[in-house]
């Protein structure tokens, strides 16, 4: 609900602060007094385009601030939460326009683009006029009104979920098919690469083993010569060797041990050294006996290592990881080999998900057609009440899901109307009379307000082109609508103004060559005087005052 609005230096308004109440508020005033200025200012806080001409002459900037209470507006609360702009149970919109034409928008003190104010504004308040802000003419708003009246939100959510899943899978399939030619070329390359590596048949640790064996065979001569020299030093040296020296030293220590027990452990240590020296010599000798110096084996290893190195360079990897590269290429090739199968499986999934979408879209369409019949009857009756005795209203629901599927299903919804006998039903946007359009819009809002979460509503001169009994009915409908939601109505008709739960008066004042617009609430007696002015024009009599009071009492 709109709680208040503060306007500074906007158009001919110097400063204006207004508080609004629940129910229906009638706004009246003389022609040209600026009754629509507050609505224009409010429109700026709802994301309308700003213009430098909106700034009051002589001022640097205009500023408009509005406050809304959100206790009964869960849609706006969810929007604020989703956009991380929530600040308690209230919402403050602010717009600043400089004389240069620059503007800044704020939601709960946070700077935001005007587009975000516009998105939130549609959840807070609807402005109905003859020319601007007529959401009723938009096809997307028409289907939203029908869905809100039908109350099948669970079906809409299910439709949106299924549609998004289908679109996502369809895009995956499209991307896979698009890549098919590239995949086939890649598959041919992989087949060639894997064929080469299959021919090599490299084992997992084979390269390391080959490298060690090649190194051993390449240096077998040096290994044999050096090993034999070590054996000679340890045991086989004719003049002296380590084993002989250790044996002689041990004998001397044994002799000393007979004289002093201190030498016994030392003799045992030399015995252990002598044994280890002998075992080392024997192990080297056995190695020499088994040493293979086969030149043919060395030639084979040279060739295999050269092949491994060549393929490693070809694949830009180290020889040590050529085996794992081979296994990776095999895996990629197997994956590509199943591409056609993957396309078939994905196509089947797309078909199944599309069928699910069509099923939900059909259920949604049936529900819309059912509730459209209810609305057709109710809105047509309301048109008859509003001096459109021959009027007829029909909501056309056409299921085009096979070719025009969307998150809302597949229905094309159009509001059709006929206002004169013999006139065919035609889209609401083609209705010639602005007054008729306003009354039809009013009828729809009154009917749907009981079932939908309707934001605050502003009707800007919905009474244009009507008078007498029709004006009284319009007033009654607006008051009825005000019982469930906040309604503000700019009007020239006393029959409409008298139905308001409260009334505001707009006046234009001139002081020292400067014009200012003011708006203020009227008490009971002031309302009678204003209604009398609307009834009798410039000449107010006791009779017009009595008639004015009768209007208030009747309301």
TrEMBL record:
Keyword list, A-Z: ATP-binding, Coiled coil, DNA damage, DNA repair, Nucleotide-binding
UniProt xrefs under CDD domains: ABC_RecN
Residues forming coiled coils: 156-220
All residue ranges annotated as the Rad50/SbcC-type AAA domain in the record: 5-214
Xref: Pfam families: AAA_23
Secretion signal, residue range per the UniProt entry: none
NCBIfam families for the chain: PRK10869.1 (NF008121), recN (TIGR00634)
Annotated family: Belongs to the RecN family.
Role played: May be involved in recombinational repair of damaged DNA.
Protein name: DNA repair protein RecN
């Amino acid at each position: 609900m709109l709680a208040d609005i503060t306007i500074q230096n906007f158009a001919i308004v110097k400063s204006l602060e207004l508080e609004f109440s629940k129910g229906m508020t009638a706004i009246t005033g003389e022609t040209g007094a600026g009754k629509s200025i507050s609505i224009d200012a409010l429109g700026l806080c709802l994301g309308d385009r700003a213009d430098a001409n909106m700034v009051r002459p002589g001022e640097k900037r205009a500023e408009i601030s509005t406050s809304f209470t959100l206790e009964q507006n869960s849609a706006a609360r969810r929007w604020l939460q989703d956009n991380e702009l929530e600040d308690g149970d209230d919402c403050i919109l602010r717009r600043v326009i400089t004389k240069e034409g620059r503007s800044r928008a704020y939601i709960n003190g946070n700077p935001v683009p005007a587009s975000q104010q516009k998105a939130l504004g549609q959840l807070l308040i609807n402005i109905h006029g003859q020319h601007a802000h007529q959401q009723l003419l938009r096809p997307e708003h028409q289907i939203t009104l029908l869905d809100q009246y039908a109350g099948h939100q669970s079906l809409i959510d299910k439709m949106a979920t299924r549609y998004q899943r289908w679109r996502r899978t369809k895009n995956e399939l499209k991307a896979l098919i698009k890549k098919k030619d590239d995949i086939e070329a890649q598959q041919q390359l992989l087949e060639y690469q894997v064929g080469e590596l299959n021919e090599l048949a490299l084992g997992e640790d084979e390269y390391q083993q080959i490298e060690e064996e090649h190194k051993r065979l390449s240096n077998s001569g040096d290994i044999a010569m050096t090993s034999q020299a070590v054996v000679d030093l340890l045991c086989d040296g004719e003049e002296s060797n380590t084993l002989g020296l250790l044996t002689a030293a041990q004998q001397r220590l044994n002799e000393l041990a007979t004289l002093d027990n201190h030498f016994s452990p030392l003799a045992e240590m030399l015995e252990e050294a002598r044994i280890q020296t002998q075992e080392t010599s024997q192990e080297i000798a056995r190695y020499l006996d088994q040493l293979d110096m086969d030149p043919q084996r060395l030639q084979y290893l040279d060739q295999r290592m050269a092949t491994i190195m060549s393929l490693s360079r070809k694949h830009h990897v180290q020889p040590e990881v050529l085996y794992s590269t081979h296994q990776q290429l095999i895996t990629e090739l197997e994956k590509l080999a199943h591409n056609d199968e993957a396309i078939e499986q994905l196509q089947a999934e797309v078909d199944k998900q599309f069928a699910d979408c069509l099923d939900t879209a059909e259920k949604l369409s049936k529900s819309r057609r059912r509730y459209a019949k209810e609305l057709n009857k109710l809105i047509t009756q309301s048109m008859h009440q509003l001096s459109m005795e021959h009027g007829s209203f029909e909501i056309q629901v056409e299921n085009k899901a096979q070719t025009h599927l969307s998150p809302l299903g597949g229905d094309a919804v159009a509001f059709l109307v006929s206002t004169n006998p013999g006139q065919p039903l035609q889209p609401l946007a083609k209705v010639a009379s602005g007054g008729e359009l306003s009354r039809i819009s009013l009828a729809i809002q009154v009917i749907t307000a009981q079932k939908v979460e309707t934001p605050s509503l502003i009707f800007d001169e919905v009474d244009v082109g009507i008078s007498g009994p029709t004006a009284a009915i319009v007033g009654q409908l607006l008051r009825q609508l005000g019982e469930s939601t906040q309604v503000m109505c700019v009007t020239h008709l006393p029959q409409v103004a008298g139905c308001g739960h409260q009334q505001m008066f707009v006046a234009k004042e001139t002081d020292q060559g400067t014009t200012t617009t003011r708006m203020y609430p009227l008490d009971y007696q002031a309302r009678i005087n204003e209604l009398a002015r609307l009834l009798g024009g410039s000449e107010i009599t006791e009779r017009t005052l009595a008639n004015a009071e009768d209007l208030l009492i009747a309301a």
